Task: structure prediction
Amino acid sequence: MAAQYAYQYEALRSSRHIRLLSILPGTRDDTVRCEMIQDVALDTMERLGVKYNAISYRWRAAEPATSIYIDDATFSVGPALLAMLKDLRPSDGSRPVWIDAICINQNDVKERGVQVKLMQDIYSLATHTLIWLGEIDDDGELALTFISRQAAMEPERERDASLEERWAGCTPGSDYVSLMRDRSYSLIWLAIFEFCRRDYWSRVWMIQEIALSKNPTVVCGHMGVAWADFETFLGSVFAFVAMRDPGAMHFWHLVPLLEDSFPLLLDSMRQGQGWDSAPTRDGRWLLSALQKYRTFAATDPRDKIYSLLGLVSEETRHDIQVDYEATVEKVFIDTFKYLLPKRRRAEAQDDIVTGSTPQLRCNFTMTLDDGTSSTTSVGEEGFMTRKHGPLNSICCAGYGSSQKGDFPDWVPWGRFPFASWLPNWGDNGRGPTIDDLSHCRFRASGDLEPEYSFHDEDRVLQVKGYLIDDVRWMGSSVGAFLSASSSRDTLSKDLAIISSVADSQVDAITSAFQGRAYREADFWKTLVCDSYPTSHFSEAPDEWGSMSVALLRAIAREEEIPEDKKGLMASEYLIMLRKTMKGRCIAISRQGMYMMVPEDTKLGDYICVLWGCDVPVVLGMRDEELVLVGECYVDMLMDGEWLQSVEGESHMFAIQ
Result:
């Protein structure tokens, strides 16, 4: 916190000690008064029966400061923390809590490093974890009331059932399809959507805090709901939607919610199921987790890495040390070099191809019309990826991301900007990688082993690869259309913009090269990187090869989907475009290959395949230096078949 306060911390005597804050009683209008309990030994807390609540919430260093009293001395807190402390005050006695913004001296970088290593114990030993989403409003009250009511309608046997059992349930509280179609519930679904999109859910620290907690409770103002009920509700909605066509009109408003519904995955992680448990979470898991949670926010960009260390094995925690005295650049480089040789794991010998996108695995049995039964598995529960592609982490990097420096003033820097090949985990604006969009299906470099080295004090990555082609023509990016749009408040407006982009590209592409035929199927497939919105199918269906611009425009703007296969296919195509078009644009290579390239690409940039990287990349000259512009999708290049007829020698690219 930037504001000064009179309260002075006492130094912790041991790395296994923490502080607890005891909130004293008072009315809501009173000044908040607390006492600090110093040097509480974690190793004896359980034996002595020390009870406390761990608080998980989002605090912002830039918020205006106000004062509370700790041990009769003033202490500066932000308005969100002040509101939470007022709601947590007991009517009598005191309430011991652990709050990182207060119980860790944020101005002491050494203490922060020591305490961050204890986060795993702090949350796992807490009696309860209170997940504070902020003060109550109309949406929050409506959402929590509805979720609590639905949970109460579930029989006890259903509330403890597996997701597969809940999937097949027919209880009154789980008939969500009827509730989605009922227009009288539209305000409730909108409230739930807004509730689940509160900025708390984009906070990277909450992943570890919820995953390690024994008894979490979701709290908003004076209202709360048990995590089990909250997760049960979201899981049931997910199950009903996943059983049906995601393009159906009455599911549209839920698609973004379920795409971003990390509570679903966090619950399975919290219970430590399967291979995805702490003893087996090694560097390969951390690499996938960094990619998966790349859009999450942290006040200190180093925490994008440190916040996940409580979920990995002791060996991995030992290899990556928490050090807030190191520059952000050094932390990112050291992590990149540590993870680079880690082969991404496969759960079975047949190489499961699920990427790092958040998904559930749900097994259910259906009775067919002929009386036979069929068991189906939908989704995957972990970070199960193929064994190859050790250089894939550079797909999270790029020239545009390396230029971004939206960090607090107090964060010490080394040389800036970052090298273009270095993933900038502090850049929260990047969308899913092509690896994730395709469920790790592509193998552009085949089985070629990476060859790389670092030079110029880790500012240059020298890596072997092939120069395939260069960029001859580029279309418009989504950003160009967004600048002319006054609002993106609804999904329909978002989709309308996307359809306008697709509309404009058709005419442009047909006239891009005189005498060259417009390949309709390749064009539509390229726009979505040959990928499907869910993991039910790996690649774009054949029906997408003949999309109708008029139908896309009608669906996006009129919010009406024809109840036929063409209408559903078109709506799903728009959903997929929302994922692929962010930060990308259509392009054509000199040899006539259709491509989806980063919007920072320039005419003449090179299309390359690097050894050990499953996705092609764009390299280009910027200020007389060769930089990584970013990953790209190139039609006819993604499965490695071109390697059989490759001509010319490989190159060693010195990427700045």
